[in-house]
Structures are given as C-alpha cells and as structure tokens.
Amino acid sequence: GAVVSQHPSWVICKSGTSVKIECRSLDFQATTMFWYRQFPKQSLMLMATSNEGSKATYEQGVEKDKFLINHASLTLSTLTVTSAHPEDSSFYICSARSGQQETQYFGPGTRLLVL
Amino acid sequence: AQSVTQLDSHVSVSEGTPVLLRCNYSSSYSPSLFWYVQHPNKGLQLLLKYTSAATLVKGINGFEAEFKKSETSFHLTKPSAHMSDAAEYFCVVSLMEYGNKLVFGAGTILRVKS
Fold first, then answer.
1. Residue B36: CB partners within 8 Å, gap ≥ 6?
2. Contacts of residue B51 in chain A, CB cutoff 8 Å?
3. Rounded to 10 degrees, what is the CA torsion of A70, A27, A113, B103?
4. How confident is the model at residue A40 (pLDDT cuts 50, 70, 90)?
5. Residue A7 touches partner B, C-beta closer than 8 Å
C-alpha cells in the first residue's frame, strides 16, 4: 500500500514553454501533497504544501506564479512549471500523506531538463 | 528551531560488514524522525520511523535505528551490508509545530565494496 506515482518520469522542453507534472496517490486518499526539488548532489528542498481543495502554501523564495500547484482531488496534484528556463532544470519529487499522519510517501520523481 | 545533521557525506564499507550512518538532530519538541533511502534516479523509500514509542526501531531490509535523547542522535545501522544497499540515505525530522513539515539532512552516500 501507500503508492505514489508521478508522470512523466522524464521531460525535456524548450526554454519558455510550460511543463505539467502529475502526482497521484494510487491506493489512499492524500489530503496533503508536497512538492520538493532536488538539485544534483543536494538534499530535497520543500517547495510547497497543498491541501486538497485549497490554495498551496509556498516556501520562502519559491515563486507561486512560476510554479503553479493544483490539488483538485484527493488523489491528484499537479505542478506546472510556467515559462521554464534552464535554471529550472532539476529533479522534482512529490509526496503525499493521509490525514494528520506524519509519514509521507514519495513518488519516483520527475527529471526536468530545459534546453 | 529544528534541524538535522548527517555527520558523513560518504561512507564506504565492504560487503558483509556492518553499516553505521550517523544523524544528529536538534529539536524544541519531542521529534518524529525518519530514515529514507534513495537509489540513483529514483524517489525516496521509507526505511523506518521513530514516533516516541520504542527507542530501537526496526525497518525494512535489515536496517534499524536507535533514538538516543541524551545524545540527540538517531543513527542508522545494519549488521551486514549488501551490494544492493548502495544508495543515498536521508535522515529526516518532522516539524510538529509546522504541521509535520519534513526537514531533510544533507544525505549520506553509502558505497558497498565487493
């Protein structure tokens, strides 16, 4: 149980385009989903927290207009990187948890390369 | 404030020998602590978690960790390393006062030599 999927696993796009990444909880209802970013050889940094049906809460320094997060259902959250630039190239990982549980279950990650 | 310090960025062991990955934390509250493993180009997998029950926590794949409040440590151990254990390991603390937001340590890369 507690499986989280992400799609796509890899994406290459041109600078200036937008990219949407999906995160799904496959066998549980994810009341809260989290989006992290991981640069090469670095740890995970939390970008934002989203609760189903409400606006996401962004961490300091993360541009909400550039990284659009939608959490419209209990099993799906999306992250859209708008007007992507090469510096947005990174490994994006989502996680999900149910209710007030502390344990987060992580997706396999999406590697974004912006040319 | 809460934070997590992983004392070694790289650890190298021979197959069949013990593994010790060190983690210290600072916390204003009784913390919840986790160890996650990340294989190359993969997401994170939960190895084990401590949530104020037994101080010795057993996880998957033969790993265990001991919560020592007096030393503010939560070191990860395994009696005998296997080649498949080669990966990056993250010690993580849950920030209770911020809705259980996770704070990650910098990570320790474990190399297992044959």
1. A106, B44, B45, B46, B47, B89, B90, B92
2. 102
3. 80
4. confident
5. no
